[in-house]
């Protein structure tokens, strides 16, 4: 065997189907991948009561990368309380593996006719280990009429600086060399101030990058009316969660949106996953679009130094699949073209 050692967490719903196609296409580049599958997710939790055992987390740390399909129970299912898998599995991996950059590229498909202001070619860089996701907060007098719930936002200079630096670096290597900070500095005057100062100070090292600032609410208007204005965006964890769903929706649908959760220090594996969820309603129908997963695999190959293989997948993806193709047919279509 040999090759890159990759852990595969297919997960729930369409997760296993799309990650299967992604690995098929990745392997068709000739790059050798030695994969080990891990059964984790909603079904596994319901069957065993396990979310992410410590031993499994330790094993995962030994891989070069993790391919994740999708995690989550069917909507309306009562078997998995909200937050158990999100906090216990996906966010735990992001935090414990220190995957501090969530890199989410969006490109409009070439076969859709669009006016120039609507053609998307952007990357959203979402801070991935802090903000409201850090889990600060708690209850007082829970369940009473005087109940108090707080949910803080954690922003460290270190955490903000490293993700801002990554975004500048990326912008400086792209054709447009444009970077927008998205935040809500007019209301979040503490965290917003830290973000703006850091953005400005790091920016002094990147004079070739043109910068802009948008409030997050305004950025939602621009995202719909004129997404072409964006090249690279950097933003905090929660704003990044929200605007990347919107960015997916305006660039051909969430079925195309890929993501790389990166530990740039390479002290452990990085994790690659489509932005979409488990879509239990279409499991086994062949209607799941594997393109987001395939694109995520290309991000993985690129991060593993297999730059030519990644490029050949991205080049192949420039041609949309014929309409009506099934999940596996789309996988075959791209596997033949790389
Ligand atoms: C995402 C998802 C996750 C998030 C959920 C599943 C915890 O929505 O990757 O965007 O909120 O980050
Ligand atoms: Mn999300």
- What is the count of helical runs? 11
What is the strand content?
15-25%
The biggest beta sheet reads:
10 strands, mixed
The helix/strand series, from N terminus to C terminus, equals: EHEHHEHEEEEHEHEHEHEEHHH
Distance between the termini: 22 Å
- Tell me, rounded to a whole number, the average pLDDT: 97
| Oligomeric organization of the protein chains | single chain
List the strand order in the largest sheet: 2-1-3-12-11-4-5-10-8-9
The tally of beta strands, per DSSP, is: 12
Keywords, separated by commas or semicolons:
single chain; 338 residues; alpha/beta; ten-stranded mixed β-sheet; two-stranded antiparallel ribbon; 11 helices; globular; binds 3-isopropylmalic acid; binds manganese (II) ion
């Amino acid at each position: 065997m040999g090759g890159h050692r990759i852990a595969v967490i297919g997960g729930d719903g369409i997760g296993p189907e799309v990650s299967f196609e992604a690995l098929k296409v990745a392997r068709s580049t000739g790059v050798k991948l030695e994969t080990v599958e891990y059964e984790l997710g909603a079904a596994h939790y319901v069957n065993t009561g396990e979310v992410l055992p410590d031993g499994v987390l330790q094993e995962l740390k030994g891989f070069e990368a993790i391919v994740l399909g999708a995690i989550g129970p069917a909507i309306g299912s009562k078997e998995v309380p909200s937050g158990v898998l999100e906090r216990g599995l996906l966010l735990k991996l992001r935090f414990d593996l220190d995957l501090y950059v969530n890199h989410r590229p969006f490109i409009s498909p070439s076969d859709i006719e669009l006016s120039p202001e609507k053609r998307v070619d952007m990357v959203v860089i979402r801070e991935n280990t802090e903000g409201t996701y850090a889990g600060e907060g708690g209850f007082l007098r829970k369940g009473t009429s005087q109940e108090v719930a707080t949910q803080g936002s954690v922003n460290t200079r270190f955490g903000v600086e490293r993700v801002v630096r990554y975004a500048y670096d990326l912008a400086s290597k792209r054709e447009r060399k444009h970077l927008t900070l998205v935040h809500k500095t007019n209301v979040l005057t503490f965290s917003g101030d830290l973000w703006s100062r850091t953005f400005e100070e790091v920016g002094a090292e990147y004079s070739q990058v043109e910068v802009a600032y948008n409030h997050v609410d305004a950025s939602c208007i621009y995202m719909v009316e004129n997404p072409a204005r964006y090249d690279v965006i950097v933003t905090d964890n929660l704003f990044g969660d929200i605007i990347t769903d919107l960015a997916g929706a305006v660039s051909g649908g969430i079925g195309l949106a890929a993501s790389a959760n990166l530990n740039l220090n390479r002290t452990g594996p990085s994790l690659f996953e489509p932005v979409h969820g488990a879509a239990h309603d279409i499991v086994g129908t062949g209607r799941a679009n594997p393109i987001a997963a395939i694109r995520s695999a290309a991000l993985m190959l690129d991060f593993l130094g297999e730059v030519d293989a990644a490029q050949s997948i991205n080049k192949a993806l420039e041609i949309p699949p014929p309409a009506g193709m099934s999940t596996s047919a789309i996988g075959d279509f791209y596997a033949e073209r790389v």
